[in-house]
Specification:
There is one protein chain. The protein has 195 residues and is an alpha+beta fold. Helix content is 21%, strand content 39%. It has a domain of 134 residues: Immunoglobulin-like (Sandwich), CATH 2.60.40.10. It is built from two helices and ten strands. The strands form two sheets. A five-stranded antiparallel beta sheet has the order 2-1-4-8-6, with no helix packed on it. A five-stranded mixed beta sheet has the order 3-10-9-5-7, with no helix packed on it. Helix 1 runs antiparallel to helix 2. The chain is elongated.
């Protein structure tokens, strides 16, 4: 019974690690994101004032022939950011070669300059990257989606509340925690086997 429980927990932990490690890849492309020059993941966190610009850059390298679309968004109906420049507006999909396919090995770089709006002041607004890839002859392909940033938008005239020390940079388990849990479970399993 304990052996089965140990195995289930170990499998769940390994799935969490794998999901975090490959969240920016698909069979069609590798997607790399940067916010103000910082590679993502971990999630970029910052405090900005309304109208204070920052940059989001995305590099895509195709592994297979595909057409694709890319966009940045936030959940909900409010628009916490506006695109000052970029391949498309905030919360819009930019279609790369909508009438044709790009070749495996091609590389693409996209850059947005975003500014926080007053629609989400006093809170943290996430920015999610979505890239959808469709291979030739198919109507459905693969999508890469991950959060690239969480921006606290400062209220006008007010200071942002301090962020608690030790706030995790990314939800879920980090690598060190997961490895520690696996080692602990391994020791537990070894002691159970000796009995």
């Amino acid at each position: 019974m304990l052996k089965t429980a140990f195995l289930i927990i170990a499998l769940l932990l390994s799935q969490t690690l794998v999901a975090q490690a490959i969240s920016n890849q698909s069979e069609y492309a590798e997607v790399t994101a940067y916010v103000n020059g910082q590679k993502v993941p971990p999630i970029y966190k910052n405090r900005l004032k309304v109208g204070e610009p920052f940059d989001v850059e995305v590099a895509i390298e195709l592994k297979k022939d595909a057409s694709f679309g890319i966009g940045l968004s936030s959940p909900g109906k409010t628009q916490p950011f506006v695109a000052e420049s970029g391949p498309g507006g905030f919360d819009e999909t930019f279609h790369v070669s909508p009438s044709g396919y790009r070749k495996a090995g091609e590389k693409f770089d996209f850059k947005w300059r975003l500014k926080p709006t007053d629609a989400w002041t006093g809170g943290s607004a996430p920015i999610t990257l979505d890239a959808s890839f469709t291979p030739p002859g198919k109507s459905i392909g693969d999508t890469v989606t991950f959060t690239v940033a969480s921006i606290y938008i400062e209220p006008p005239g007010g200071a942002a509340p301090p962020q608690p020390a030790g706030t995790p940079r990314q939800p879920g388990l980090d690598l060190a925690s997961a490895l520690t849990a696996l080692v602990g479970l391994g020791a537990l399993g070894a002691s159970v086997r000796r009995r």
